[in-house]
Structures are given as C-alpha cells and as structure tokens.
Design a protein that fits this description.
This protein has one domain (8-109): 3-Layer(aba) Sandwich (Glutaredoxin). Helix content is 33%, strand content 21%. It has helices at residues 18-33, 49-54, 81-89, 102-109; strands at 8-13, 39-44, 62-67, 70-76. The longest helix is centred in the N-terminal third of the chain and has 16 residues, at 18-33. The chain is globular, with a radius of gyration of 21 Å.
Length: 117
C-alpha cells in the first residue's frame, strides 16, 4: 500500500478511441508538470471494468480525480488543457517553489561570532 497522499487523476481511455488517443500527450504533459502535486494513471475501460463500474464511468475518455479514496471531480469526453487545469486547481495543494529552507539560512548566518557594536 502506498503512503503517497497526492491526489490521483485516473484517465479512462479506449485503445481505438480517437478522442482518448488525442488526450494521451496532454495527460503526459500534465503528469510531468504537476508531478509534485498529482499522480496520473491511464486505465483502459475494457481491461478494468471493475474500476469503470466503481467510479461510474460511462464514456471514454473520462478523467476522474480521486482524493482520500473518493472521487472529487470528473470531466467526461475530450477535454482541453485549460478545462483540466481548472478542475485540478480547485483540488490540488498549492504549488511550492523550490527555495532554500529559511531556518537553514538562519543557522548558517548565526554561526559566526557576533562582533561588538
């Protein structure tokens, strides 16, 4: 069992579906861009009918965002990057810039002996 707490975006697709195939590169881009805040997995609807039923998927492509083991958002049909990003922003934690830890900086600055005033 994974300890990963990032939300999971499940991309339900079909191998022979044009809209699904056109969304694959878009989802790969989003997965790379949001890898710190989001996990993305692609599921073929014919290979995992159990997940299709459990998450009430009626069409491919469908995106289902799962957080804390519950679906919290979905997009059915072919979706554009702005629509997907708008759906995600509402549910993803804020992005964190890679900045040096302020406490580490303070410790380094305080290692030199203080000089008289």
């Amino acid at each position: 069992m994974s300890d990963d707490i990032r939300p999971l975006l499940v991309f339900f697709s079909e191998k022979h579906s044009g809209p699904s195939r056109r969304m694959e590169s878009l989802l790969a881009h989003i997965a790379r861009k949001e890898r710190q805040r989001l996990r993305v997995v692609q599921v073929d609807v014919h290979e995992r009918p159990d997940l299709v039923e459990r998450l009430s998927v009626e069409h491919a492509p469908t995106l289902v965002l799962v957080r804390d083991k519950r679906p919290v958002a979905r997009l059915e049909g072919r979706a554009s990057a702005p629509r997907i990003e708008a759906m995600l922003e509402e549910h993803l934690p804020a992005a964190v810039d890679h900045v040096e830890d302020a406490d580490d900086d303070a410790r380094v600055l305080n290692t030199a002996p203080a000089r008289g005033a």
